[in-house]
Design a protein that fits this description.
This protein is 22% helix and 26% strand. With 316 residues, it is α+β, with helices and mostly antiparallel strands. It has three domains: 60 residues, RNA-binding S4 domain (Structural Genomics Hypothetical 15.5 Kd Protein In mrcA-pckA Intergenic Region, Chain A, Roll), CATH 3.10.290; 77 residues, 2-Layer Sandwich (Pseudouridine synthase); 144 residues, 2-Layer Sandwich (Pseudouridine synthase), CATH 3.30.2350. The strands form three sheets. Strands 5, 6, 7, 8, 9, 10, 13, 14, 15 and 16 form a ten-stranded mixed beta sheet that branches. It has a four-stranded antiparallel beta sheet with strand order 1-4-2-3, with no helix packed on it.
């Protein structure tokens, strides 16, 4: 038996206000083909306040949606929280939380969402840890091996607000990274266009390409680490792998970046530092809240591995 083996009457709250009925049903009826969802809408099997609606209808607070019996494909069992210590650790990594959103200091090595062979990621883990939360959605993404500030909305109105800030480039992000070589001040700004490519393996690879999308990153040298450098990166745009590719373009790729550095050549240094992958940390996130022009800033402490690399350099 599934949750939708019989007629359901669902009352809409503020978390779904303004959402199109088709998108609401696609999320609700995971495992049901989209073609089937649009068919039951067209046939009038979906009713809102006892009336037929079209796919583009936008839900309102207190609407009552009638969902007919629908066969839902069996979902995978949720992750076994008791056996996943890293998942349970997420609760201790929350930087700030209120009823509208939370900020997490995402650990390196954990994807933000399931997919590509992964049964779960940060968002699935949080939902499993907090089954009573009605709404938890990623505002933005971080690469699996990137650590630091990850913003998660707990209300749809805040998700929309944060997404609008990102589109308008009004959310400020600051990263720190360990790169190879001595960073030169002439590279304080990189603004070459980037293009996403899909490799035969299915992996994404981003290259500097004049036909790509406009991309801009501001950099600042923070500290010499011997044959390495500690830098700050402030992306003005939000392209895939932007900081990593722009750092490579500047001649100082991230140490241990398998896609954009000489990974085989990095092995000796990685081993001496006790690293397996690159060090890129989303250190600070600043943004406004609805109906306010005041900026709120939140910081994620540096990961232990990055602190150790800085200390091992012996450079003051």
């Amino acid at each position: 038996m599934t949750e939708f083996d019989k007629v359901q009457l669902l009352e809409i709250d503020e978390n779904h206000q303004g959402q199109r009925i088709d998108n609401f049903l696609i999320t609700l009826l995971k495992g049901v083909p989209k073609s089937r969802i649009y068919r039951i809408i067209r046939k009038g099997e979906i009713r809102v306040n006892k009336k037929r609606v079209k796919a583009e209808y936008k839900l309102q607070d207190s609407d009552v949606v009638r969902v007919p019996p629908v066969k839902v494909a069996r979902r995978e069992d949720p992750p076994d929280i008791d056996k996943l210590s890293r998942v349970k650790q997420l609760e201790t990594l929350i930087i700030f939380e209120c009823k509208e959103f939370l900020l997490l200091n995402k650990p390196s090595g954990m994807a933000v969402h399931g997919g590509s062979g992964l049964s779960f990621g940060v968002i699935e883990a949080l939902r499993a840890l907090r089954p009573k939360e009605k709404f938890l959605e990623l505002v933005h993404r971080l690469d699996k091996d990137t650590s630091g500030c990850l913003l998660i909305a707990k209300k749809r109105s805040y998700l929309k607000h944060f997404q609008n800030l990102l589109r308008a480039r009004k959310m400020k992000k600051e990263y720190v990274a360990v790169v190879k070589g001595n960073w030169s001040n002439q590279f304080n700004q990189v603004n070459v266009p980037l293009k996403k490519n899909l490799l035969k393996s299915g992996e994404r690879y981003v290259s500097v390409d004049m036909t790509g999308k406009k991309s801009e990153t501001h950099f600042k040298h923070l500290k010499d680490l011997g044959e390495l450098s500690l830098i700050k990166a402030m992306p003005m745009t939000g392209r895939t792998h932007q900081i990593r590719v722009h750092a490579k373009h500047a001649g100082c790729p991230l140490l241990g970046d398998e896609k954009y550095s000489d990974f085989d050549g990095d092995q000796s240094l990685l081993k001496s530092l006790g690293l397996r992958t690159f060090l890129l940390h989303a250190k600070k996130l600043s943004f406004t809240l609805p109906d306010s022009d005041e900026f709120y800033s939140y910081e994620a402490p540096l990961p232990v591995k990055m602190e150790q690399v800085i200390e091992k350099s012996g450079v003051k």
